[in-house]
Amino acid sequence: MTAIAAVNQEIVRVGLGARGYDIVVGPGILKDAGRYVAPLLKQRRTVIVSDETVARLHLDVLIAGLRREGITAEMVTVPPGEGSKSFAGLEALIDRLLSLAVERGDVIMALGGGVIGDLTGFAASILRRGVDFIQAPTTLLAQVDSSVGGKTGINTRHGKNLVGAFHQPRLVLADIDALTTLPARELRAGYAEVVKYGLLGDAAFFNWLEAHGQKVLALEPAAVMRAVVASCRMKADIVAEDEREAGRRALLNLGHTFGHALEAELGFSDRLLHGEAVAAGMVLAFELSVRLGLCPASDAARLRQHLQAAALPVKASDIGAALGVDALRHHMDQDKKVAGGRLTFVLAHGIGRAFLSRDVPEDALRQTLTAFVEA
């Protein structure tokens, strides 16, 4: 892992009272992990859960950082990819953690991307009726989104993240040096979640991304820090206000109702990464908003242009798969946000002005999906 540069670390606080925690952002954090983790441990030991790919890249650095503070670590590895985020994957992980005699007072560490964080967090939430865990996200997507806020879970044949729990981490260690090991496609997928924050409530941040997004993708240190810290701050503020997604937090699902349907139709496979699905889903949300007369077409065009410049999908042909409106519509009906048989959509009055709506006409929805799959 090559150091990205000597830039300052920053701490973002998730204000949840006694359950609040810090997000530590910056370079070199994994090698200094022990000093952040030690105060949270009753015993100077932990169990690290990672996938085989991430472990090869980052495990030695993390273990060395823990050892400097006298912390010993056991290791559990799972296969990489969404396939591990399943009932079978959960059972295998819990069985391994029990075999290692993890106690209720212990702390588990999740080292990896969104799959590892979601799976490990859910296992922690139910193991011995709840043990603490720490997020050490190694992808851009996980650093700015999935590691923060306590959403954990697994996928089922009915859809994504339909089985899970709210279980807040004790700490998030976002080492931006880890981003230097990401494949370009994974980095771009994570960038979609960064763009989301500008769209849902910070037009000035979206303007900044239009000017500096390529610097983020090129991993220029100051740009990466600003993008990650700004994203974490916005999410932390939203989670502190609405931890259980009873209101404002639902805005964070911008692009996800459409995106999860696309992922489900493609079998939660590497044919479409989660961030890529969110990018396409945000375009669909803005196109639907335009169709309903709620959003200027120029804002939807700006979004499409920005995502295309980041080599993210904005239409079905970019995904390279045959998609059907009926199939996508079926998957959308399995969305977690369905209430009383009605979908909740995150729409937009424009860039930086997202809102929730349950009053979307079926014909407008189908027309938007049709235009997407035929493009």
Describe the protein in words:
The protein has 2 domains: about 10-180, 3-Layer(aba) Sandwich (Rossmann fold), CATH 3.40.50.1970; about 185-375, Dehydroquinate synthase-like, alpha domain. The N and C termini lie far apart (about 40 Å). It is an alpha/beta fold and about 375 residues long. It has 14 helices and 11 strands. Helix 2 links the parallel strand 3 (about 45-50) and strand 4.
Short overview:
The chain is an alpha/beta fold. It has helices spanning 33-37, 52-67, 87-99, 114-126, 140-146, 184-201, 203-217, 221-241, 256-265, 274-291, 297-309, 316-319, 325-332, 362-374; strands at residues 10-14, 21-26, 45-51, 72-78, 107-112, 132-137, 151-156, 159-166, 171-175, 345-348, 354-357.
